[in-house]
Amino acid sequence: MKPTTIDLVNRQGLQFFGSVNASISHELKNIFAIISETAGFLNDLTQLSKQGKKLELSLLENCSNSIAEEIERGFDTIRQMNQFAHSVDDPVKATSIADTLVLAVKLTGFLSYAKKTHIDDAAKDITVLTSPFLLQNLIYRTLCALYKSVDTKDALKITFHEKNTDTVFLKFSWNTPLAWKDFPDREISDMADALKAEISITDNTLDMAVARDNDTLSAALTGGKQ
Amino acid sequence: MKQIDILIIDDEIKFADMLSRRLSLRAITCRACYDGQSGIQWVKKNPGAAALILLDLKLPDMYGTQVLAHIKQIDPGIPVFIITGHGTREDEKECLALGAVEFIHKPVSIEKITTLLNHARGEVQ
User: Fold this and answer.
1) In terms of pLDDT, which residue wins out, A11 or B65?
2) Most buried of A162, B67, B109, B125 (most Cβ within 10 A)?
3) A79 and A64, same structural domain?
């Protein structure tokens, strides 16, 4: 039996939230670990200076720059966490494809196996009336599957355009041909169905056609109040 | 004869480099590798050359457990400590089953690392 849309949001949504939170906490721990080591190094230098060793100002400057960079990395991570947390504010709303892609690439970028990914920034942004959270989830999981499958040194390119008045077309491409196994899996298929998205794959492209106005999803998630 | 004291395998370059510098101030020699393959290759080319290995779990090219399994095949006796910001209890169980000595969460104090090294050198009972 196919899961209802509410089932999808509840079950897969919780898994998605957990997965993103885990990767964000990993990122923050790494940032704190670098700051902690840098502060420790400054302390080491201070102790050596107290023992009469000449203090090299360039080392202090490097440490200060490194701490400032890591703090900025931390703020950037928290901004993405905040943006992601707000994706559940509205069950269905006009959702920017460009913003959704940028956030998905940033969130998946915390994963150690993430590959270099370039979003076509010349593309004109398009909005779709959909569940921002489910769409984010679908794109995030698609990117995860691609990162795990494409060649280690390969990079991904994402482009998007309006196919017609009813559909937005997203294209993920890479260079080294890939033999797909088990994609899309059942969870991704169920999510794509709920979002009225069609996925087709070749050995170096993945196309995703997403409905611009998903009235079935709106009714399921808002009880017809949209 | 050990060529170095500690091999650090971690893709957080700044963390690995800063830790190496701090340890070098304590007369501890380190080598840093920033992905799994280069870590494995180093161990393959230099069997028995490090007193211990600090291994991150999430690496860009392979998972830390895979790296651990390879290293243990090449050099079964080398003490490997997992240092990670992420690992789950399942990861911890798997790492210990594969022969890791300890599973340590980041951040880790320099004193803890020097203690691990002293144990590995057999300087502390």
Assistant:
1) B65
2) B67
3) yes
